[in-house]
Design a protein that fits this description.
This is Cytochrome P450 52A3-A. Keywords: Membrane, Transmembrane, Transmembrane helix. Helices cover 71% and strands 0% of the residues. The chain has 97 residues and is mostly helical. It has one domain. Helix 1 packs across helix 2. It starts with 5 loop residues before the first helix and ends with a helix.
């Protein structure tokens, strides 16, 4: 019986998911050993939980920056983006007339 396709996929994604919290934990250990200080558990837990989303935000911003630079190198402009504060297209569609 062959493995379901989800298990090999999850095995391939495991390093990507575990890398940010592992980096945070290693930094915690380095700070404790080199700085002779104790990092509270709640700070370590919060940092580990937020490291994945924080990395995602940084990667998306970096990708957008690269797209803007590439467009500028070709003399082009990026199309305007929808504002998160105005609910984007949903707000425009439900605007009273």
């Amino acid at each position: 019986m062959p493995l379901p396709p989800g298990i090999p996929y999850l095995a391939k994604q495991l390093p990507r998911v575990l890398a940010p919290p592992l980096v945070v934990y290693c930094a915690k250990l380095a700070i404790e050993r080199l700085g002779n200080t104790i990092v509270p558990t709640w700070i370590t837990t919060t940092a580990c939980l937020l490291s994945g989303p924080a990395l995602f935000i940084v990667l998306v911003q970096y990708r957008d920056y690269g797209h803007r630079r590439e467009a500028a190198a070709h003399g082009a402009m990026m199309p305007p983006a929808l504002s998160w504060l105005s609910w984007g297209i949903v707000h425009a569609l439900h605007k009273p007339r």
